[in-house]
Design goal:
Layout: H1 17-34, H2 39-60, H3 67-74, H4 82-107, H5 116-127, E1 136-138, E2 145-147, E3 159-160, E4 163-164, H6 171-182, H7 192-205, H8 212-226, H9 237-243, H10 245-256, H11 271-295, H12 298-313, H13 330-341, H14 346-353, H15 357-370, E5 373-375, E6 382-384, H16 388-394
Antiparallel strand pairs: 1-2, 3-4, 5-6
Helix pairs in contact: 1-11, 2-4, 2-9, 3-4, 4-5, 4-8, 5-8, 6-7, 7-8, 7-11, 9-11, 10-11, 12-13, 13-14, 14-15
Length: 405
């Protein structure tokens, strides 16, 4: 059992310059992604992706909560089935936690996100929002059920697979070492490597009895936001990790391994294992950025908006609202204009559609009712909206259309 902080070393991989090359690509491609969209449109896409990130984070934990059910929960429309309702609330807890993290980083620019106070806070804000049935963990061997206290470091020993976590009494010491080494103030340059390495080492410490995966993914989000890594939020590492879950688990296990021989670094743990994990993690990040760059390319997204409206007109997909007339072709013009420009005056978007004033206002009202357009007031500017029922068509492969209900 681990009791001394040198047993956690190395804390950064060595002897692999290809990791820095990948980190450079991540920084440049993510910056390009961040500059593609109007800021207002970007906020709408990020709001959707918070739902998607929650969906994929749930999948990593073995929980399936469809984005449509998550969106319903955001409107306080919960399932009758208690188990499904709990999963909806779990998803909301993750979304709220993402927002809290983003807000706190803006409010506290000097915050050490690697510090134990912040890491404990991540656990607390997530678990405080969970339903009571999900605040328990069962020991499979003893059948004992233990209640999880939000923000409490574990008080007992844990074994995760073949990994035995540090002794519970030593957790403050390990977390202090983690905080001092991975503090954002201590690094410059290609910090995505630091984020990858610290992602594993925080999992290795396993500071909580339950919820470590959630906390580590939220912590990693904070790492990328704190860089700042321009464009983060339009892509997220959780999707990539969920889609390659078996590889992710294998990479975590590889980085848990002890040093194999004299050529495997100078620390207690395997440098080769940490290199393997960081290489996998950074490749996942780059894959997600490249994927979202293609998905959000203006020509592509404008074509998909037009295609979606045409499918609705041809009744190839179901109407999300009952007793409404079919969408008209001019709806595509309105949606495309809002996507490109961010905010558009109501009279202007009707003029651009080419429709007469009265029929244009009827169509505009339909789009607002359905959530395809949004506005902050009855006469205010309109912006693009991306409800879950359309997301699978505008952003294919974020989640499969075939699974929508």
């Amino acid at each position: 059992m681990y009791q001394r902080t040198p047993q956690m070393e190395p804390l950064l991989p060595s002897g692999s310059p290809d990791l820095e090359d990948t980190a450079r690509e991540i920084v440049s491609h993510s910056a390009a992604l961040g500059g593609q969209l109007h800021p207002v449109t970007r906020d709408s896409v990020v709001a959707l992706l918070r739902i998607i990130n929650s969906y994929y984070s749930n999948l990593i934990e073995g929980h399936h909560t469809h984005p449509i059910d998550i969106e319903r929960a955001m409107r306080q429309d919960y399932a009758d089935d208690p188990a499904m309702r709990d999963l909806q609330l779990e998803s909301l807890a993750h979304i709220h936690s993402q927002r809290y993290v983003e807000t706190r980083l803006l409010d506290e620019p000097d915050l050490n996100i690697a510090g134990p106070d912040f890491i404990v806070w991540l656990h607390r804000i997530f678990y405080e929002k969970l339903p009571s049935d999900l605040k328990h963990v069962r020991n499979k061997e003893t059948e004992e059920t233990v209640k999880i206290t939000p923000g409490e470091l574990r008080l007992r020993e844990v074994v995760v697979g073949h990994h035995v976590g540090p002794e519970a009494a030593t957790l403050p010491v390990f977390l202090d070492r983690f905080a001092s080494f991975y503090s954002p103030a201590a690094f410059h340059g290609l910090k995505p490597i630091v984020a990858a390495a610290s992602h594993h080492r925080l999992m290795w410490i396993h500071p909580f009895l339950d919820g470590n995966g959630r906390v580590v993914r939220l912590y990693t989000d904070a790492c990328f936001y704190r860089l700042p890594l321009s464009g983060y939020g339009l892509w997220n590492v959780s999707r990539g990790l969920a889609r390659r879950r078996d590889e992710y688990m294998a990479a975590l296990i590889a980085a848990d391994a002890h040093r194999r021989n004299d050529t495997d670094g100078r620390g207690n743990l395997s440098n080769e294992g940490l290199v393997h994990f960081c290489r996998f993690f950074l490749d996942v990040c780059l894959d997600q950025i490249v994927f979202m760059n293609g998905l959000l390319g203006l020509d592509n997204i404008l074509d998909r908006i037009n295609g979606y409206v045409n499918m609705r007109m041809a009744r190839l997909i179901p109407e999300p609202l009952p007793n409404f007339p079919l969408l008209k072709l001019e709806a595509a013009y309105m949606l495309q204009e809002a996507f490109l420009r961010g905010h558009v005056a109501r009279g202007e978007i009707i003029r651009i559609s080419g429709m007469a004033e009265r029929t244009g206002r009827i169509l505009l009202g339909r789009l607002l009712t359905e959530g395809l357009l949004q506005s902050d007031s009855p006469k205010g500017l309109v912006r693009i909206g991306i409800p879950a029922h359309v997301a699978g068509y505008l952003f294919p492969d974020i989640y499969p259309i075939s699974s929508m209900r």
